[in-house]
Specification:
Helix content is 33%, strand content 24%. By secondary structure, it is of the alpha/beta class. It starts with a strand and ends in a 9-residue tail after the last helix.
């Protein structure tokens, strides 16, 4: 039975000053592991689904610790390729109040960035896969990696595997012109697309002005027009759009839109006191993928995915460590009262 989700991307060590200290103040760092696609794989397993994480890591004890971290949540790591010089890193200066968080990457020359197509046997990897998930971060790492992503998508489509793609454009990793060309090519093979308004405008060159904040009800018409144009360009079965306003680093207004062959479906809007903003988009992807695996469609699917991500705002670290039961409770209108 094909019920597994395969994710593909770079595992990173995350280093952050303790509390809300800035880099200039830091004398020690908190160390965890993360990365967009690993976050999705972990969130799915914690919520009770099956996932396999595919990456390339060096033969070092630090990389082994990263694999152990991923595996500890139940993620299948069978197809992690080994070799190359180093593990990728990223540093985060966590924001507070009116100061936004800042991410600094150190991943040039990593084992994953230097990976070759011979490192991954996609036919074998996809043998029992139902969904393949990747993001726009991965093809940004090298020209070879961009081609690996395209070939993986082609193989997934050939084998009848649903392709899920989070655009995740990172301006610090590559220029928009190069990103637009590569991500447009990948999008030809995508079934489920995740994006925000800025990515739709910059990557796909679709510009529909909003009338205020992203979560304002008056923007529904603009968002629907934007997504309709996007789905006319590409063969997406559904597009999920994140709706996010950030009054401060510790307060976020959050919602979601799912557009499918029956039209637009909006989630409830959450006003959230934030613990950790990193990984919310990955939690949204994992949540909606989980909804698809549960057979949910339309409003029920977007409520589930958005609730999963809303809970991630309250969880320290990159990964969304919440159960299916917690997601279902919140998506069904639950509250934050103590559970006894």
């Amino acid at each position: 039975m094909k019920d597994k989700v395969v994710t593909f991307g770079e595992l990173l060590m995350r280093l952050s000053p303790l509390g809300h200290k800035r880099f200039l103040q830091a004398e020690e760092f908190d160390v965890i592991y993360g990365g967009a696609e690993a976050n999705v794989a972990i969130a799915l397993c914690v919520a009770g689904f099956k996932s396999t994480y595919v990456t390339k890591l060096p033969q070092t004890e630090i990389a082994e610790a990263g694999i152990n971290f991923v595996r500890s949540f139940g993620v299948d790591t069978e197809f992690i390729s080994r070799g190359g010089p180093r593990l990728g890193l990223y540093y985060i200066d966590r924001g507070a109040s009116l100061r936004g968080s800042k991410v600094t990457y150190d991943r040039v020359g990593s084992s994953f960035a230097l990976a070759k197509k011979t490192d991954f046997d996609w036919e074998k990897i996809f043998a029992d896969a139902k969904i393949f998930h990747l993001t726009g971060i991965t093809p940004a790492l090298s020209d070879d990696m961009a081609q690996i992503c395209i070939e993986a998508c082609k193989e997934a489509k050939k084998l009848g595997v649903t392709v899920s793609f989070d655009v995740n454009y990172r301006a610090s990793l590559w220029p928009i012109e190069k990103a637009r060309k590569t991500l447009t090519e990948i999008s030809k093979y995508v079934d489920v697309c995740f994006a925000n308004e800025e990515e739709i405008r910059e990557v796909y060159d679709i510009n529909i002005p909003l009338r205020g904040k992203a979560t304002d009800l008056q923007n529904h018409e603009a968002y629907e027009k934007m997504v309709k144009l996007l789905m006319q360009k590409f063969p997406f079965a559904m597009t999920a759009v994140t709706l996010l306003d950030s009054p401060s680093s510790s307060n976020h207004i959050w919602g979601g839109l799912l557009y499918d062959n029956k039209g637009a479906h909006y989630s409830r809007v959450y006003n959230i006191e934030t613990i950790d903003r990193v990984g919310v988009g990955d939690a949204f992807s994992a949540g909606l993928i989980g909804a698809i695996l549960k057979g949910y469609t339309g409003s029920k699917a977007i409520e589930y995915g958005t609730a999963a991500a809303a809970l991630k705002f309250t969880v320290e670290g990159d990964c969304n460590l919440v159960s299916d039961k917690e997601i279902e409770a919140l998506s069904s209108g639950g509250n934050a009262e103590i559970k006894r």
